[in-house]
Automatic annotation (TrEMBL):
PANTHER family: DIGUANYLATE CYCLASE DGCM-RELATED, REGULATORY COMPONENTS OF SENSORY TRANSDUCTION SYSTEM. InterPro entries: Diguanylate_Cyclase (IPR050469), GGDEF_dom (IPR000160), Nucleotide_cyclase (IPR029787), Rev_trsase/Diguanyl_cyclase (IPR043128). Residues 288-431 form the GGDEF domain. This is Putative diguanylate cyclase AdrA. Its EC number is 2.7.7.65. The chain crosses the membrane at residues 21-42, 48-69, 90-117, 137-159, 171-195. Keywords: Membrane, Nucleotidyltransferase, Transferase, Transmembrane, Transmembrane helix. GO terms for molecular function: diguanylate cyclase activity. GO terms for cellular component: plasma membrane. The gene is adrA_2.
């Protein structure tokens, strides 16, 4: 067998960073151990049989849900940029509330096995990723199941006294929080180890829209569990609102895709303008200054002429990554057209201090782009494109205007002043005499 053919059989997990491989196997072994241990600890009586029968029913509902939403889910996976919630936590969280930890783990494995077969596998998702994701959800469900004793859910269903209702509801809310945190921490840890980025609290907390979606899904899971206790047929009423939720989330993701530049992953010009207007309004409310940066990649036409447009696209993508790495996550970055980019810097102090900070940010970006070396695969072999540079024009509220249109006009004037001065420079405001830099 040739070396090329042997590589085709190489396990993809071997290409992961070693810390990620360690976390991967640790999480999966812990999952297997907890599920097996939980099942072995169950008493051999009628209650265990009923729990297993109920788990089968819950998995069946998850299968029906996946079949009804398969087309929507495949589209959602294709258009998702980062975080992706499959909404199956309706059934996995309900299993955590209804069953002992071991049986709750079986519900997750059953639902996610079918989900992989019908949605993830055709979309080309790596099997090891799905196994890890399934393991994180199993651990989240086991943790939530441990928090909520069966008596707590029965109390919410009306079996307990009035005085026990409030503590039971508190346990449900705690179980929701535990379910989300365990899952998100493990997923954020995997992203940090595979991408090389620092483990950040923001990666664990996610976006506000993600919180709303996951909260709505978990609430449906609570309702499904309560229906299963009181009147099992009522659990079917969870399916229609769940399918409506699928479509609502798909619309939101399609809107996000429409607002994203396909080549660079940055905001489109229209989407950036919308966020910039909101940033300016927020700055006025908080009495902060806001700066607009317009950047133009110097001599980009020569890159396309010498190396081709595909290589030019690689350069644009590398510059876009550099821009987002040099500013805060709250500062919107967009592609303004061609080789031009725009950045909004919010929360700056007024006066000279704000101008100094805006100039320093522009200089930081200029130096980072100047240090880029973009590796591009060509038919004749890989090559490296270096000697890149950007010219930057900066405008800040106060001296340069208050509206977005005024700031962009002044920043554009400053950009062309930087180009007339020899490119690879930063210019601020209306004056060409502001401090600039050369390579």
């Amino acid at each position: 067998m040739t070396r090329a053919r042997r590589s085709a059989y190489r396990c993809p997990t071997l290409d992961l960073p070693r810390p990620m491989v360690l976390v991967l196997f640790t999480v999966e072994l812990l999952t297997v151990g907890l599920v097996a241990g939980g099942l072995a600890a169950l008493p051999a009586d009628r209650s265990t049989g009923l729990a297993l029968l109920g788990a089968i029913g819950l998995v069946a509902l998850g299968v029906v849900h996946t079949e009804l939403a398969t087309g929507i889910e495949r589209v959602r996976r294709r258009v998702a940029h980062a975080s992706y919630f499959d909404l199956s936590s309706v059934w996995t969280f309900a299993g955590a509330l209804l069953f002992p930890p071991g049986v709750a783990g079986l519900v997750v494995i059953g639902v996610y096995s079918h989900l992989w077969w019908r949605v993830w596998r055709p979309a080309g998702a790596g099997f090891y990723r799905h196994v890890y994701t399934t393991s994180t959800v199993v651990l989240a469900a086991i943790a939530a199941s441990t928090v909520v004793a069966p008596d707590g859910l029965a109390t919410v269903a009306g079996a307990g006294g009035p005085g026990s209702m409030l503590p039971a509801v508190g346990l449900l809310l705690l179980a929701m929080a535990v379910y989300v945190v365990v899952n998100q921490v493990l997923v954020a840890l995997a992203l940090a180890l595979t991408t090389g980025r620092r483990f950040a609290l923001r990666g664990v907390l996610g976006e506000w829209d993600d919180h709303i979606l996951e909260g709505a899904t978990l609430c449906l899971g609570v309702l499904a569990a309560l229906a299963a206790l009181r009147q099992p047929l009522l659990i079917l009423l969870v399916l229609p609102p769940l399918l409506v939720l699928h479509r609502a989330v798909l619309i939101r993701q399609l809107e996000e895709r429409a607002n994203t530049d396909a080549k660079t992953g940055l905001l489109t010009a229209a989407a950036w303008r919308g966020q910039a207007h909101r940033g300016l309004a927020r700055g006025r409310r908080h009495r902060d200054a806001v700066a607009v940066l317009i950047l133009d990649l110097d001599h980009f036409k020569s890159v396309n002429d010498c190396y081709g447009h595909l290589a030019g696209d690689e350069v644009l993508t590398a510059v876009a990554r550099t821009l987002t790495a040099q500013v805060r996550e709250v500062d919107p970055v967009g592609r303004f057209g061609g080789e031009e980019f725009v950045v909004l810097l919010a929360g700056l102090p007024h006066g000279q201090e704000g101008r100094t900070l805006a100039h320093a940010a522009a200089e930081r970006i200029r130096r980072a782009v100047r240090g880029l070396a973009v590796r591009v695969d060509q038919p004749g072999g890989p090559l490296t494109i270096a000697d890149l540079s950007v010219s930057v024009g900066v405008a800040i509220t106060g001296q340069d205007g208050e509206s977005l249109e005024e700031l962009m006009q002044v920043a554009d004037y400053a950009l062309y002043a930087a180009k007339r001065a020899g490119r690879n420079r930063v210019r601020l405001g209306r004056s060409e005499g502001e401090p600039g830099s050369e390579a």
